[in-house]
Amino acid sequence: MREIYLDNSATTQVSEKTIEKAVELMRQKYGNPSSLHAKGLEAQNEVENARKIIAKTLNCDQTEIYFTSGGTEANNLAVFGAAKAMKKRGNKIVTTAIEHSSVYESLKELENSGFEVVYLKPDIFGMVTKEQFMEEIDENTILVTVMMVNNEVGSILPVDQIRECIDLKKSPALFHVDAVQAFGKMPINISKIKPDLLSLSSHKIHGPKGVGALFKSKSKRIYPRAFGGEQQDKVRPGTESAPLIAALGVAVSEIDIESNYKKVLELRNYLVKKLNGISEITLNSGPDSLPYIVNFSVENIKAETMLHFLASHNIYVSGGSACAKGKASRVLKKLGIPDERVTSSIRVSFSKYNSKEDIDALIEGLLDGIKSLVKIKE
Predict the structure, then answer these.
(1) What is the number of structural domains in the chain?
(2) Which of 163, 178, 250, 366 would be a feasible disulfide site paired with 21, CB 3.0-4.6 Å?
(3) Do 266 and 245 lie in a common domain?
(4) CATH number, domain at 289?
(5) Residue range 198-225, pLDDT digits in tens
């Protein structure tokens, strides 16, 4: 039975060239990048090449790229590092109520330490406006942290307008963008968005798990979260995982945003048209969301039940964020979606490897599931 994988916001299939690069470094260029001999230099050159590739993609200086173990660490380093560095300037942080758990839980911890955190409320499609940021950012704000694309419903937040808000309010705030779900899927230009910090992850773009990166403006300072080495200007010390970093570089070099976007947009439109023809299904993603993510609810069927049914047919989707481990979606609740739709929500997320045949199989699986599972309940 053919495998239908539609959970690409959780993780993506690793590309062959990316695998080959990681294996090359593990088998041949296995030196410690910090070692001064030839084997170390060999590995260091691979790390620096990946840094150059990412910097070119983001339109920033390569010295502003710091490698981490993934998006969660990059977000934690940005949030905690910025808060600690700026705490003498104020104690207010502005964010949204639908941030990824790696940001949301970090902010909850900072609240416990005495910081004031304002969580802007989105509309039912996950949109937050520039005006909401303007209202809350002030001279006491030390950090504004916002995701570029929501990982559950695909809403695109106005990150390109936030720097203007910070400047107009004469705020000292550092500006952090969680671009984990956006990187590789839509253009990101550091010189236009003007963030101080920006996070990305490898395994969302057909690279390996266990590696990510943080852009940090060379004009800004944050406190490290780890100590014990001279690597990466002590911002993120420790021996770099050269095989994973080099593989990330290959994954970034393979990105074709325009071509992939066009293909995925056609898939999203095709899926939405099919879903709209099923009376038991209600869409949760808005019409202006990133086409890579489509969230919907299936009437009277718990998400976990439908997920298992589809998986038994080799169709793999999600009930929301993989990091939530099956818990009811905090994000959908914050959007004001009724509980019965929250607990029955399904997230489909595409990659360049998907096809209309995958969607046809999904729709057939959903229809079979609705027929079978509702009948069992009765």
Answers:
(1) 2
(2) 250
(3) no
(4) 3.90.1150.10
(5) 999 999 999 999 999 999 999 999 999 8
Query: Cα separation of 57 and 147, whole Å?
Result: 19
Residue 79: burial class (beta carbons within 10 Å; 0-12, 13-18, 19+): buried
Domain range for 261 is: 4-12+257-377
- pLDDT single digits (tens) 56-93: 999 999 999 999 999 999 999 999 999 999 999 999 99
**Positions marked catalytic:** 323
Instruction: Give the model's confidence band at 341: pLDDT under 50 very low, under 70 low, under 90 confident, else very high.
Output: very high
Residue-wise pLDDT for 5-48, tens only, equals: 999 999 999 999 999 999 999 999 999 998 999 999 999 999 99
204 and 97 belong to one structural domain: yes
